[in-house]
Amino acid sequence: MTEQYMPPIVSGELGQDTVTAAADRNFYTRGKRTPALPALSEIDGVSVSSLVKEFGSPLFVFSEKDVQAKAREMREAFKSRYPRTSFAWSVKTNYLNAICQILRNEGWIAEVVSDFEYRKARKLGFAGKEIVFNGPHKPKDILELAVSEGALVQIDNLDELGALEEIARHAEGPIELGLRVWLDAGVKPIWSKFGFALANGEAEQAAARVIANPKFKLHTLHCHIGTFILAPDAYRVATRKLVALREQLHIKHDHLVPCLNLGGGFPSRSLLHGMWGPREKAVPPIDAYADAISDVLNKLPAKKRPLLRLESGRSLVDEAGYLLTTVVSVKGVNRSTSASGLVASGHKDRLILSDNSKVGYVVDAGINLLYTAAWYQFDVHPSQFIDTPPIPSRLYGPLCMAIDVIRDNVELPPLAAGDVLTLHPVGAYNVVQSMQFISYRPAVVLIGANGVPELIRTRETLEDIDRPERLPAHLSAA
Ligand SMILES: Cc1ncc(COP(=O)(O)O)c(C=O)c1O
Hints:
Elements: E1 42-43, E2 46-47, H1 48-55, E3 59-63, H2 64-79, E4 85-90, H3 97-105, E5 109-112, H4 115-124, E6 131-133, H5 140-148, E7 152-155, H6 158-169, E8 175-182, E9 196-197, H7 202-212, E10 216-222, H8 232-253, E11 259-261, H9 279-282, H10 286-298, E12 307-312, H11 314-317, E13 321-331, E14 359-363, E15 379-382, E16 391-396, E17 405-412, E18 420-424, H12 430-433, E19 443-447, E20 453-457, H13 462-466
Helix pairs in contact: 2-10, 7-8, 8-10
The structure holds pyridoxal-5'-phosphate.
């Protein structure tokens, strides 16, 4: 062998730690060709940094304009196709008084699912007649109150029907009632927990029992097929099935149920984990849902067309809600390597290719405030434009728990402690499901339609948390 040993040629790329290295070859190192992330520096004309300065961080922010716009868009979509539509606000989605009041001002009635929500709606000024009462557990005393105040109770189960029959014995009739039906609209999983089954005749039997009672009037057939339903045609199926049940009851019992309630479930422009954007393409517009439902109802003879009722939550408020949060620390990348891999905040290691090759940021808002982070991928926007290509990053919450991760994989420009980020959309369910755990729940601000930010819920204090507690005398400090 006379061949001479040829040493390998070391590419100029190797060992480079700039964002341009290996840019052509590797998904994670798209270098300068990845456009910088746009900033979200204002909400309704109010600067994000001034909000944090005035009201603290983290901070929930809602836009009155946005809630109004969504309500008007939904009203227009349905009323233009089916004028006999009535709208109820699903209070559990966000029962901040200010949010409920905006929807009340838009002409929405209230849909509640518990004793607490019923009383809250009444306190907000909704008359009994303006309340639809759902839910699998309605204790007898609240049922009595709701019936006496003229609320529309939508019966969930036979035990509740029995309780209502008992109440009716001592009440003046007729009591208007709804019946929750569970049916297969082609959406999986089917929520079998609620209502009376259509497929085995249970719903028809229960309806017949209500119709037969002279103290009752069956006002509504109701179904709620799930939440974040991305298939408008599922509503077409559900509407057909409710119409068929109504027709059957009409023929057999000579009672034409005046109202069909198709529930909530319309999606917001949000993405579930694993879904690809853009949101405008991934999520059908409200008009598609209005088409699906009104197509079926408009085929009925004019005299037989029912009142259509909807009880939406998510689609009305999700996009109106933002959570502002501040970076409290920057973790190194490739944390699985030796101490040198823990070089923090310089972002020099970002070309190391592994799942751990992400910059980690600890922010001051965690999953205790963002229950829905388990399902939805929130957009993350820096509040200032950073003219550097985004890189794979991970957002950790501040809780002393490993599961406190808000976004496991999100592309962000290099950030530093003190930078403010906005998470969006977070307006549905998060505020009401947020829990006091380890830290205080944050303040909530509403930017009014007049562009003025106002506090609508104060930040929790130690006194708020301690107030309901009682210390037994023998444990009190001497
Ligand atoms: C009975 C009922 N109606 C309406 C809603 C509102 O649903 P969404 O927020 O998906 O519109 C819910 C929520 O799950 C519900 O349980």
